[in-house]
Design brief:
The structure holds two protein chains of two kinds. Chain A is an alpha+beta fold. Chain A is 42% helix and 26% strand. In chain A, a hairpin with a 2-residue loop joins strand 3 and strand 4. Chain B has eleven helices and 27 strands. In chain B, the strands form five sheets. A six-stranded mixed β-sheet of chain B has the order 1-6-2-3-10-11, with helices on one face. In chain B, strands 5-4-24-23-27-13 form a six-stranded mixed β-sheet. In chain B, a hairpin with a 2-residue loop joins strand 16 and strand 17. In chain B, helix 3 runs parallel beside helix 5 and helix 9 runs parallel beside helix 11. The model of chain B has no long low-confidence stretch (mean pLDDT 92). Classes of the chains: A alpha+beta, B alpha+beta.
Chain lengths: 124, 421
């Protein structure tokens, strides 16, 4: 199994969580990787917008990363978007409903990040 | 010194049969013939419970197995809110018995009594003197009704419907508050000389449906207890990291001591927000309440111990506590993420050195609040247990008891038992 396939499997596991509506990995080295089954979001235009525009955050992220930036949260209508950084060039992006408590999801985001880091580390 | 073998294992496979195979191989490696297995799964595995339990019980025919659903767990492997974990113990100087009681939400006293009788009977010929119970009881399940999203009901009509409906659903569908204390009153009355640690089963904190396990049986609205008698010593403790602030009086409360209607003679929600010095609209905002309510529990004393009660549901004229609010002085409390983490250290520090293994039940509200920072709890546990096994499960209510002492039932807390030879 190639690196991207392994990462895709991790994202698929994350997407199986009830509250996770969508997730993707985006980064300079990895490009954008999405789970095989895509998204649970019904608004596909929004999903495409998130996929297409997430890399635009990186110039700002790079500036703040040296000061310890770990995560960015923003509310987007009925959803909350969590950007969690593996390094200043790579982010795991997860979309959850805005009404849910994010604590449980965050635990698995960290586990996914750790596994993805291992996968990327093995390939270097 | 007799050989005590303890295995704490994790599986993150998705298929029940693969979970069972992975756990079987981990258990078999460390504890070939365990006397008991505690098994906990997150609700993601609902459709796999049957396969997991039937395969494991088939492989460990002479082993008692109990457990249930949890919101997450911590052990040496990591912190998880999706997965299955086991704690298996093999020790020659130990007898084990299992008790089950059904219909805990409809007839909690009867369920507790039936369960404890089975344990008493099962252990009556044991020559070992130290008795201990692992207790798991069906926790709160909130019936789905329109207008209840976010844990805040502003409409008076919906409030009336919910209050009336709760009584009906409690009896007919057994969907309502857990009544764990009514069950535990019976269990501890009939087994006074046993120590105990308890966790109320829960799903992914949606409070939809939770399950209890006993052997290959998948139960709902049940109490399952594992009683042991052995020469193992145990030490229990608990804490929450909260500090008491302003004292207030609960002047009107429901018969079950959980729905608070009046505080200081005033409607509960507005008076509580006044005491907290926060605008009512801000803390009872339906969009944010589910994220904020962990910071606003009330506290009450049992002896010199401050016990917390979280208000999981706020209605137009009242607030529902997740467990019973005792009579006497009640306080607003302050609690932070940092104090929650520090409290684990405080609980562990008087526990002494050289533990053989540990088991803890921690409130899922703390998991919701701390999120991935529960890794700090894991670090504290690892520092205390070193290479020895431990398991922390996230539940909807927790309790501990020392032998011949009263039990403490809590929310938003961390309860711990350390076992040693």
């Amino acid at each position: 199994m190639g690196r991207n396939e392994e990462i895709r499997k991790v994202l698929e596991d994350l997407l199986k969580m009830e509250d996770v509506q969508a997730c993707l990995l985006t980064g300079r080295q990895t490009g954008t990787i999405t789970p095989g089954r895509g998204t649970k979001l019904k608004n596909l235009v929004l999903w495409k917008l998130i996929m297409d525009s997430s890399h635009k955050f990186f110039p700002v992220i790079e500036d703040f990363y040296v000061y310890g930036l770990k995560r960015l949260y923003f509310e987007l209508g009925d959803y909350e978007v969590i950007m969690s950084f593996l390094d200043q060039f790579t982010a795991l992006i997860v979309v959850i409903p805005s009404l849910v408590n994010r604590g449980l999801v965050e635990v698995e985001i960290e586990n996914s990040k750790r596994t993805i880091k291992e996968i990327i580390g093995r390939q270097k | 010194m007799k050989d005590l073998k303890v295995c704490v294992g994790t599986s993150r496979q998705w298929k029940g049969i693969e979970v069972a195979a992975e756990l079987w191989s981990k258990i078999k490696k460390v504890t070939p013939n365990p006397k008991f297995i505690l098994l906990f799964a997150t609700i993601d595995y609902k459709d796999e419970f049957k396969d997991i339990l039937s395969h494991l019980t088939l492989e460990f025919k002479n082993t008692s197995l109990v457990g249930g659903t949890v919101a997450g767990f911590i052990n040496h492997d990591g912190c998880y809110t999706r997965g299955v974990t086991v704690l298996a113990v093999d020790y020659p100087n130990m007898d084990v018995a299992v008790g089950i009681g059904n219909n805990t939400k409809r007839s909690p006293e009867k369920a507790g009594s039936e369960c404890s009788k089975q344990i008493k009977e099962g252990l009556k010929n044991s020559k070992w003197k130290n008795g201990f119970i692992f207790s798991f009881i069906a926790g709160l399940e909130i019936p789905k009704m329109p207008g209840m999203e976010g844990g805040v009901i502003k409409s008076r009509t919906v409030t009336k419907l919910v209050k009336g409906g709760m009584g009906i659903t409690q009896f007919l569908m057994q969907k309502s508050v857990g009544r764990e204390e009514d069950v535990l009153d019976q269990v501890t009355r009939e087994l006074p000389d046993f120590g105990m640690i308890h966790g109320s089963t829960i799903d992914n904190v949606k409070m939809g449906k939770n399950y209890q396990f006993c052997g290959k049986e998948i139960l709902t609205n049940a109490v399952v207890c594992l009683g042991i008698k052995s020469d193992l010593n145990f030490d229990s403790g608990f804490g929450n990291g909260a500090k008491q602030n302003i004292k207030f009086d609960i002047t009107e409360i429901s018969k079950n001591n959980q729905i608070v209607s009046k505080i200081n003679g005033q409607p509960a929600p507005s008076e509580y927000s006044r005491l907290l010095k926060k605008p009512e609209d801000l803390i009872f905002d339906s969009k944010y309440y589910v994220k904020r309510f962990p910071y606003f529990p009330c506290g009450m004393f049992q002896g010199n111990k401050l016990l917390l009660r979280a208000f999981g549901l706020v209605m137009s004229d009242s607030m529902m506590s997740m467990s019973k609010v005792h009579k006497g002085d009640v306080f607003t409390v302050s609690i932070t993420g940092k104090s929650m983490i520090e409290s684990v250290k405080d609980i562990l520090s008087p526990m002494g050195k050289n533990p053989d293994f540990g088991f803890a039940t921690e409130c899922a509200i703390r998991l919701m609040t701390l999120g991935s920072d529960i890794e700090k709890t894991r670090s504290n546990m690892k520092a205390f247990f070193k290479e020895k096994p431990f398991l922390v499960i996230y539940v909807s209510g927790e309790a501990v008891k020392k032998p011949n002492d009263e039990y403490f039932y809590m929310n938003e807390s961390f309860a711990m038992t350390v076992f040693r030879r």
